[in-house]
Write a structure and sequence with these properties.
The protein is of the alpha/beta class and about 270 residues long. The protein has one domain: Spore Coat Polysaccharide Biosynthesis Protein SpsA, Chain A (Alpha-Beta Complex), CATH 3.90.550.10. Helix content is about 40%, strand content about 15%. Strands 3-2-1-4-6-5-7 form a 7-stranded mixed sheet, with helices on both faces. It is globular.
Amino acid sequence: MTPGPDAGADTGRRRVLVIVPAWNEAEGLAAVLAELRAAVPAADVLVVDDGSTDRTAQTARAAGALVARLPYNLGVGGAMRTGYRYALDQGYDAAVQVDADGQHDPGYVPALLAALETADLVVGARFAGVGDYRVRGPRRWSMRLLSLVLSGMAGTRLTDSTSGFRACNRDMIAFFARWYPAEYLGDTVESMVGALRRGYQVRQVAVAMRPRTTGAPSQSPARALVYLARTALVLLLALTRRVPAPQRAEAAARVPEPAEAAGVAR
């Protein structure tokens, strides 16, 4: 675990929920949860089992995490919306998304939380001068296009709009509990565009990503070109589709108990 610049920071008086969307991640999940406990011992951890067919839920429970089991695979967007609904209902002050595949270094979580002092949504950015993560060809062109558009909207440099390593405050939790896209790239690109369109402050923190501990990325020239086309389409839709009005956490309507809908349990 590589500590971020504020790795020694505590969560203070904030109640923090770390949301870990997981689909068939039993193999590496225990190690991720152990690192989270070391990095942010005061935070609660919710693993959203996104219709897994392996022992993801059992592994999470054995590690002491809260577990929400979805009846079938909804994708990262659907899993995260479940997590945000739980965070809103239980009154958490901040929520952090950490992937279950080991790429996100929990040592940077305190840095993301610290940056919430001046932002509503903080993104852990791979292309901000830390680490050696690189992309080439059409994927690089996609990242540059997204960076150009979103940086202009935010009034600050945003280099990694597809990062799923992020933290948000209470008002952002309330917004995402009501509206969180589940389509391809919706959980990253469209959710950030929606937040910016509704006036939320989005900032980034430089982080180093690690190789995934489970699974393997699918990369080929043809897939990269498809990715570029999809990225452009997602960005166009995100800029034109209706986004609900922002709502402060205190005024947000109570959502159904996640325990009733997704079986949240220890």
